[in-house]
Every structure is written in C-alpha cells, then in structure tokens.
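Problem: given the chain below (217 residues), write out its structure.
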Amino acid sequence: MTEPERPLRVFLVDDHAMFRAGVRAELGAFVDVVGEASTVPEAVTAIAATQPDVVLLDVHMPDGGGRAVLEALRRTQPNVKFLALSVSDAAEDVIGLIRAGARGYVTKTISSEQLADAVRRVADGDAVFSPRLAGFVLDAFASRPDVPVADPELDQLTNREREVLRLLARGYAYKEIAKELYISIKTVETHVSNVLRKLQMSNRYELSRWAADRRLV
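Solution.
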C-alpha cells in the first residue's frame, strides 16, 4: 500500500500577528504550517531549526525585512525555498527579493487557493509571480535601465533604509516619515544617518537627487 504524500511544511514570517493567523487558517487545509516568526532574528533561528519546505516571507519588516532573512539563510539552508508575500508591488522590492534568492513573489491580494498552489509550485522548484510582477522580473533580466538589476550602492541599504530614503526624497519631514512607517523620529534620524554614511553623502538634498536618478521616488 502506498504511503500518503507528506503535506508541505510551511513557515510564516510576518510582523503582523493577525495576518499570520489569517494565513495559517487559510492554508491549514492545504499545508502543514510548522512555525511562524515576527522578527528577522526569530525567523532565522526558527527556520534553521524547523527546516520547512517553503517559507512565506514578508518584505517590509524591521531589521532588514525579508531580504535580511534570505541573506542570512540562503547559504546554510539550500533546501528551503522562499516565497515573498507582500502588500508591496514596487519593482525594486520584487527584483531585490528575487536577487536575494526568493523563488517567487506574490501580493497579499492573492486567494488562499492561489497561494496554496504558489507554495506547491515553489516547493517543486518553479518560479512563481503574480501576473503584473512577472513583467518586472522579465524587464530586469532584459537589463532595462529603469529597473536596475545590479546596483552596489543600493544593495548596501536595508529595506527599511530604502523606505526612509524614498519618503525623504518625496519631501517628507522626519516627523511625517515616522508617522508613515510607525517608527520614532529618532529611529528615522538613525536611518538617515546610516544612509548618508553608506552612500558617502552629506545632506538630504544629495540623497534626494541620488534617489531620483535611480527612479526610487
């Protein structure tokens, strides 16, 4: 008698508890959710311990978000596949996560059946994208100049630093950035200071021009 097929083991990484609970409830009929984490350090430790088949990964979280998780694990956990699940459909987020090692990228508007199918396909080694996002990836690999594939300067920045930079370049004040990202003004100042140091610039006006040149605004 043939043994029943083992359900896929999935790990959730998202800093919103209600969203994790919703995904767990929706996917429970299709996969075995073996764990969840709300922070990058917690995710790195727990994924290494549980060895899931697929990790559903939020993009924008503190401490570098999904990209930081990927970069910490992609060499030590080669058998774990990563599927980004995000509210963001920005080209730079999609390309950044794929370049970091994600096998796919879908948005949080996806249905539970579609998400379960995406998880299965990623586990099988396929690359999976929401329809609109697939174009970003194709454009990037065609080396279209407005979707940079390789940018060493940009790669120095964490996801959170990029968010702060984008808002800064749009003319937001520190107080407005803090409100938009649900962080303190002091944290905004720290991120701006880090970005200035990494990019070797002296003020926000230089940063704004730099961001505009790369169409990050």
